[in-house]
Amino acid sequence: MKVLYVATEGLPFVKTGGLADVIGSLPKIMTDNKIDARVVLPLYLNIAIKYRDTFDKLATFEVKSGDIDTVATVYSTKVGKVIYYFIEHQNYFERETLYGYGDDGERFAFFAKAVLEMLQNIKFYPDVMHLNDWHTGIVPIINKVHYANVKKMMKIKFVYTIHNILFQGYFPKSIMGSCLGLSEEYFYNGLLRFNDGVSYMKAGIVVADKVTTVSSTYAHEILTPEFGENLENVLRLRENDLSGIVNGIDLDLYNPETDKTLVKNYSVDNYVEGKKANKQALQEKLGLRKDNNVLLIGIVSRLTNQKGLNLILEQIGNIMKNDVQFVCLGSGDSHIENALRNVENGYPHRAVYYCGYNEQLANLIYAGSDIFLMPSNFEPCGISQLIAMRYGSLPLIRETGGLKDTVMPYNQYTDEGCGFSFSSYSSHDMMSAIGYAMYVYYNDKPAFNRLIKRAMNKDFSWTNSCLNYIDIYKELTNKTK
Q1: Cis peptide bond prior to 140, omega within 30° of 0
Q2: Which of 306, 309, 362, 297 lies closest to 335 in space, CA to CA?
Q3: What angle do CA 350, 354, 358 make, to 5 degrees?
Q4: DSSP code of 43?
Q5: Which is deepest, 193, 384, 414, 477, by most CB within 10 Å?
Q6: 88-131, pLDDT tens digit by residue?
Q7: Contact (Cβ atoms closer than 8 angstroms) between residue 65 and residue 114
Q8: What does pTM read for this prediction?
Q9: Angle in degrees, CA 84, 12, 277, rounded to 5
């Protein structure tokens, strides 16, 4: 079976969020299950600078879509068993950042049409195209309209995965003709219309053969007004074709036994000394008081209210009244960044905020922290809590989306669980959970250590999720494994 993953970011080449982790790991696991898994990405500036000279140039071809009339070049390379394709267009993609431009609708309309043209130029026709997030949602409708007479294109089945329904690719109605080359018929029949404009995500939900999202709980949540971001009614129409499949992580990439960014490697069998050494290294690196016995709370996150940073800032005074250390790595909303700088200034040698992203520091936080705080308002899946457990840092989460599906809270009566949680999106409830975690850490260390062992022993692999996706592919194509 041939599967092409269409995305706008993916490791090991480019990353802004969890989508890149999925694209970097899921196709790799697919190849171990006898799937011909390939990936296509835009050729962004940073990729071009670092890798273009090492890529194989496959073809240059015209791309026409509405008023778009230009050319694209496709390159390829291989990572392990996975073939990666890259669509080159210097004006559209060789920019400082990936997203957030006024012409994003045009840029990703070009990308969608270029991907479909690429298939015909390189003579590769997948059985399934697995599309990811709003940027690729228009691929099925463009294929349906513009390639209706191409038999091999019409045989392709489409799986569309929602990684975060908050970001929908909403553009003015005029984009129908100018960039998509579609008549207003497809606006007025409801395929693309969203309010008075066009939603690329809605197009993907309506036209794809199957729709998935990245956890079972989130699949139920987005059917409700609270989480559906005004697409809940559209999703209910596809409810029978909607599945929630939780993400995994790359166990080779995130492995405390082999991670070269750590000062001391460790496993579940010798985590006490390993985490102690990395905690001391983290404290020394950031100017915190060296104390292996103090509870260290870590955060690696985008800094937005979606991630619960407003709850943390509401309670930071009460948190820091206790004997704890606080480390936050991330960037995002400027007012949150400024508030965290004030926290650092207010609690010298006890609280540190690092603005930006640093992979080595991130891994040191996973390894050196005792509690990993993720009080998200909503979280489709979440990767950080999986990495944290892999490294023996206990997640403290709000029970939503993939966080609820992957972190079982500690139950002192049954001695079960691998972290701590709270239900309501409330800073008071979050503080109660933090207080409970502190109590267990300082007063029942054997129980805390059992939680660490259970967390580190959890199966974070893609194995089960991969098989769930393969079942969907098989159902669509009637192919046997």
Answers
A1: no
A2: 309
A3: 130
A4: -
A5: 384
A6: 999 999 999 999 999 999 999 999 999 999 999 999 999 999 99
A7: no
A8: 0.93
A9: 160
